[in-house]
Design goal:
The protein is α+β, with helices and mostly antiparallel strands. The chain folds into 2 domains: 6-267, no CATH class; 326-517, Alpha-Beta Plaits (2-Layer Sandwich), CATH 3.30.70. It contains 14 helices and 8 strands. Strands 1, 2, 3, 4, 5, 6, 7 and 8 form an 8-stranded mixed sheet that branches.
């Protein structure tokens, strides 16, 4: 996780709090100078004590706010730690905009007390109604917009750091953090830019009417002051509403824009993309849900790619699309068994690591041939390969595909052995048996682990044919049943019928020659 520099944090807090509140102080002065001017009416030149009180109060509020903010945010510097301190740091990091807004609210509330109540009490000008109006003007008219602006600016600037503080997400799950929904956010801004100006205008109208009824300035002067108030109100409303609307729209539009760009990346097949979660509202939860979805798609793509290493791409896509019934079904298929000759002596005479490397290379060559003809390798049993053609995807010419795959396996083994010969390593030989028949194909295994397998006598006969290749001195044997499914273009050499263990009738077999033997 990212580490936060304490000095940088102090500067960040200062640059968020100070400018906004200083601007708000100017607005306070303007409000009491032109709108509710009788509340703090100046009847004499400020005395030294009054000036000192003002300066000390202002400095104390600013310093107190900065110190309180820095002390509250201190645990965030240890956000990468584990245990309770790390949990506290992450909670404080998620709460940061709220904390800065709360500190600002405390400051403006104290300002209302300092200048609306304590000031008139100390200098003998206290009047309950006037003090209440002063507090109202400081805390409500100016304080609320300042608090909202501080929160939105702090939220915007803090969102740049949150993805580094929460690289794995989880921001929406941090406890103790208030949730500001998009609806509440918009309603709050509507109140600030709609209700407060109406309140100020009402105060101005009340002040003008009171002045006229009291026999103060004449009507023209009252109207001029009212026009000045309206002009101030319009200007202030435009500035405040534009600023708040900008930050509110940005707080919604920016994360949605990032989410939109991430969705485009996902559409283009990039499943490693992640969208930073920068809030705990609806958009934050939507973003976190999007990240979970993309992570699931990434895992699915990985499984799809991994599954494609066990079956052909066509079979994989059919199975994942749900077009293949895996619960078990009877279908005619062609089964192929291939076994390495003299495997045990070779293993005993070779280094185990070399055996594993050679077996992997051999299996790669053989499976490439099988898959090239639409076959599926069901399993590797030691040095033996079991494959099927015509299941789980129906293949009309599965018999021919099985025989041609066996011939391709022989050709690939010849080329591979030539490379081994050049390297001074002994060649490997294999025997292949091919038989066609009706089998039960489906998922077989325990409740926790299944494998796609074939059950039936044709499977046993294909295995027996593979074993007979030693006795009949042929590297590829094809049954008469398979021969009957072929169109006659393949080089098949008839052999004497053979007796197969487990069968009473003799089996018709054929040896597969090379293409030039036709």
């Amino acid at each position: 996780m990212a580490q936060i520099d304490p000095r940088a944090m102090r500067l960040e807090l200062a640059w968020i709090i100070l400018p906004v509140n200083l601007l708000a102080a100017v607005v306070v002065f303007t409000y009491f100078r032109f709108v509710d001017y009788a509340t703090v009416e100046i009847v004499h030149v400020p005395l030294a004590g009054e000036l000192a009180y003002f300066v000390i109060g202002l400095v104390a509020l600013i310093a107190g706010g900065v110190v309180l903010g820095v002390r509250w945010a201190a645990p965030v510097a240890h956000v990468g730690a584990r245990g309770p301190s790390g949990d506290l740091a992450r909670r404080r990091a998620a709460q940061m905009p709220w904390a800065i807004a709360a500190i600002t609210a405390i400051g403006w509330s104290l300002a209302g007390v300092v200048w609306g109540i304590l000031w008139p009490l100390l200098f003998g000008t206290f009047m309950p109604l006037r003090s209440a109006r002063t507090v109202l003007g400081i805390v409500i008219v100016t304080g609320l917009p300042a608090i909202a602006a501080v929160f939105l600016i702090a939220e915007h600037r803090w969102r740049r750091l949150l993805p580094g503080l929460f690289p794995e997400g989880g921001l929406t799950g941090v406890g103790g953090v208030p949730q500001l929904s998009v609806r509440a956010r918009l309603l709050a801004i509507f109140f600030l830019v709609g209700e407060i100006p109406v309140f100020v205008l009402g105060m101005a109208a009340y002040r003008g009417a009171s002045t006229a009824l009291a026999g103060g300035p004449d009507a023209d002067r009252v109207m001029l002051r009212m026009l000045a108030i309206v002009a101030f109100l319009v200007l202030a409303t435009i500035v405040v509403s534009t600023g708040l609307a900008f930050f509110v729209s940005r707080s919604v539009a920016e994360p949605l824009g990032r989410l939109e760009r991430a969705m485009v990346d996902v559409e283009q097949g990039r499943f490693d993309v992640r969208c930073p979660v920068v809030s705990n509202d609806e958009i934050g939860r939507l973003t976190e849900g999007f990240n979970h979805m993309v992570r699931g798609l990434e895992e699915r793509a990985f499984l799809r790619e991994t599954f494609g290493k066990y079956v052909s791409a066509e079979i994989r896509d059919e199975i994942l699309a749900g077009h293949v019934a895996l619960e078990g079904q009877l279908r005619e298929a062609t089964i192929l068994f291939a076994d390495i000759r003299d495997f045990t002596p070779w293993v005993e005479a070779s280094d185990p690591r070399e055996v594993v490397r050679d077996l992997n290379a051999y299996f790669t060559e053989m499976e490439t041939a099988i898959r090239a003809h639409g076959g599926l390798v069901l399993q590797y049993i030691g040095d033996e390969i079991e494959a099927v053609f015509g299941a789980p995807i129906d293949k009309p010419n599965h018999a021919e595909a099985g025989v041609r795959a066996a011939m391709d396996m022989r050709a690939r083994l010849t080329v591979w052995n030539a490379r081994r010969h050049r390297d001074g390593r002994p060649p490997l030989r294999n025997g292949i048996g091919v038989h066609t028949g009706t089998v039960l194909a489906g998922n077989i295994g325990s409740a926790d682990r299944l494998s796609y397998a074939l059950v039936g006598d044709p499977v046993n006969l294909a295995s027996r044919l593979q074993g007979l290749t030693k006795e009949l001195k042929a590297d590829i044997l094809v049954s008469g049943t398979t021969r009957a499914k072929l169109d006659g273009d393949l080089p098949l050499l008839p052999l004497p019928t053979v007796k197969v263990k487990g069968r009473t009738a003799e089996v018709e077999v054929y040896a597969v020659g090379s293409e030039g033997d036709q």
